[in-house]
Amino acid sequence: MKAKIPVLAAALLLPVVALGQAVAPPPQPLHFVDGHWTPYDPPTEFPEGTTVHRVVPGDTLWDLAASYLGDPYLWPQIWERNPYIKDSHWIYPGDPIAIDVAVQEPPTEVEEIEPGETVTSELVIPDSDAGAGAGEPVIEEGVPRPLGSSADVYCFADLVSDDSVYPFSITSAERVTFQDSFSEGDIVYIDGGVNQGVAAGDRFFVLERVRPLKRLAANPRPGYIYSEETIGIVYSRIGQIKVLCAQENTAIAEITSACDPIDIGNVLEPFRPIPVPLVVDPDPSDRCDVPNGKPIGRIIYTRDDQIEIGGGWLVFVDLGAADGAYPGQFATIFRDNPVEGMPRLVLAELGLLTVEEHYSTAILTSGWASVYIGDRVELK
Question: Is 0.85 topped by the overall pTM?
Answer without folding.
Answer: no
